[in-house]
Amino acid sequence: MLHFVDLCEIAVRSGDGGPGKVSFRREKYVPKGGPDGGDGGKGGDVVFVVDSNLNTLRDFTYRKLYHARSGDPGGKALRSGLGGTDLRIKVPPGNIVRDRATEDIICDLAAEGEEFIACRGGIGGRGNNHFKSPTNQTPRYADAGRPGTEMELILELKLVADIGLVGYPNAGKSTFLAAISDAKPKIASYPFTTLTPNLGVVHSTKHKSFTVADIPGIIEGAHKGKGLGFQFLRHIQRVRVLCFILDVSDKNYERHFASLKEELGAYDPTLLSRAEVVLLNKIDALTPKKLEQLKRSIDRNTLPISALEKTNIAAAAKRLWKKLEETKKASYASL
Predict the structure, then answer these.
(1) Among candidates 216, 152, 226, 153, which has minimal Cα distance to 185?
(2) Residue 17 carries which DSSP code?
(3) What pLDDT is stored for residue 178 in this prediction?
(4) Strand, helix or coil at 152?
């Protein structure tokens, strides 16, 4: 089983610049040629590159030190040394790079193909050709290449998705994700079945699709770290639309909804201004009388569903797509 990893620490170092060459031109009829030492090559950079085929930082748990290649030394006859190859480190979309010492954000990589140079390679040293002068025709020294830079970094992954499923443990989020998408999350009847976020792609029509993130269950005190709250809540920050899934077979579902909003607001107040859709799940567990009472009591922005029996699932997917399109249009209009 592959484990989801969304936080890790690594060290990176760019390549050193190659040393300059001390050399003199020597030919048959030129016994005292001038200096011809070449420059050293530049050290390789450390570059982070976004790759949409990745969705976890698991690979970074096996390797902690990343070192770019150093530049080659300069050669005779003014030949420059070969530059060190850049070290290109692939990361998933939504990756934040922080300085471990200060925890300041260095870069935020969200889009496919986006790149960021974390450490630049050292400059190659100058060969002795650069040091000749009227008073010194035969310089016997050259520059050493400049050393590369080294940093200790924190890599933090925040999933990039259109829709984020939010709810208490065992509310049926994973069942809903499996019902509307091609994802196959672990599903069971006990709380905290989902311990890592799951991503699914929903194909609303032939040419239209959107991504949904199943965020593990949030409980009271999550914004303080309770129940692995920090690890869960960080993945909600990038979604466009919040989809609240409430278990209506639990008589406290209205209080759970208020609690979820409170936890989101305490963690990041901007989350309360996100577009939202509310789904009342597990209507299959209600008696016909209670179901009828429920339908009469809810407003038009709330939809009763049964993820298990796939009741109103198509309508839920359509509502999510519509809300997502409204959000996109609003963001375009504000540009």
Answers:
(1) 216
(2) P
(3) 86
(4) strand
In a 3-state reduction of DSSP, which class is residue 22?
coil
Kindly report the CATH number that applies to the domain delimited by 1-157.
2.70.210.12
- Domains of the chain by residue range: 1-157, 163-333
Token couple for 76: 């005779």
Sheet of strand 105-109: strand arrangement: 65-67, 7-13, 150-157, 95-99, 105-109
The pLDDT, as a whole number, for residue 86 is 97
**Is residue 298 within 8 Å of 254, Cβ to Cβ?**
no
Torsion angle defined by CA atoms of residues 25, 26, 27 and 29, in that order, rounded to the nearest 10 degrees: 100
How many whole angstroms separate alpha carbon 270 and alpha carbon 279? 21
Backbone angles phi, psi at 318, to 5 degrees: -65, -40
In CATH terms, the superfamily for domain 163-333 is P-loop containing nucleotide triphosphate hydrolases (3.40.50.300)
- Contact yes or no for 214/183 (Cβ under 8 A): yes
Over the Cα atoms of the chain, what is R_g?
A: 29
Provide the b/e sequence for 262-281 (b: ≥16 CB within 10 Å). ebbebbeeebeebbbbbbbb
Token duo for residue 230 = 């920090």
Q: CA-to-CA distance for 3 and 322, rounded, in angstroms?
A: 33
pTM of the model: 0.69
